[in-house]
Amino acid sequence: MSRIVFLLLPGVHLLDLAGPAQVFTTAADLGLPYTLDHIAEQELVTSAQGLPLVASRHWPELDPSDLIMVPGWRAPTLRAGPEPGPEPLERLRAHHTGGGTVASVCAGAAALGLAGLLDGRRCTTHHDLQDELAARFPRATVVRDVLFTTDDRVVTSAGIASGIDLALHLLSVRHGPALAAQVARNMVVYIRRNGHEPQAGAMLRHRSHLDDTVHRVQSLIDARFTEPLPLGVLAASAGVSERTLTRLFGRATGGLTPLRYQQALRLERAEHLISHGATRESAAREVGFDDARMLRRLRARTS
Length: 303
Description:
This is AraC family transcriptional regulator. Keywords: Transcription, Transcription regulation. One of its GO terms (molecular function) is sequence-specific DNA binding. It holds the Pfam family DJ-1_PfpI. This protein is an alpha/beta fold and 303 residues long. The strands form three sheets. It has a six-stranded mixed β-sheet with strand order 2-1-5-6-10-9, sandwiched between helices. Strands 3-4 form a two-stranded antiparallel ribbon. Strands 7-8 form a two-stranded parallel sheet. It has 13 helices and ten strands. The radius of gyration is 20 Å and the shape is globular. The longest helix is centred in the C-terminal third of the chain and has 18 residues. The protein folds into two domains: 174 residues, 3-Layer(aba) Sandwich (Rossmann fold), CATH 3.40.50; 95 residues, Homeodomain-like (Arc Repressor Mutant, subunit A, Orthogonal Bundle). Helix 4 links the parallel strand 7 and strand 8.
């Protein structure tokens, strides 16, 4: 069982909380072992929208498979907003030091900064707060105008609805893009993407088109991206010729071939495994490569 722990601060935005919470709840409804906890320094937290929320003051025992997420809150500036006390900040630090992942939505990035977790790392926040975040935490690299960033198990998102994108990305790298796509469909949300930013999941970047034929092929690749998938097999699954599939796929995904799409999924999954302690060789083999040489070539191509 993996825990998703939401650290709630006064004035928390409901969608910052509810969006990611719904993603992981939907994943649990589909049979994945997730449970959600809501922690605060006081039992009653008033949201930005006026709805009172009841939270626990007692932190559960966590292991590296668990996630701590800090939703954002309403305030004109980061400094004018609430700040977590010593215990939540130490919990954030200790969880990350122990191999766990921490995440934030919108202004929640400030809590990660106060815990020292943004130093030397890429991060983002709502576009209205990016300048202040950069000034307040000068050792961080603030990436502007993207939906989310990931850097060494520190994941930050832009704000409000982007928390859904962040949570779908975490599901994608942990359980595969097919599962993330299924959760998105069940939530009746469009698959989102960063567009030009490589931090976004490959599934999120290349699913925002309307070509049903390409979507069917992508769903097959999503589910079996670690296996050899010849172009002929993919074309037959969609009921089109290889030439037609190549043309449609490139038009829908901005120039990708089905093979390049599959390689992007493999690379993304391998990098996730490496960031969690796997060797390059073991990560390469788990995603379907014979050894790490192809993995190195793909990383060099995308750097």
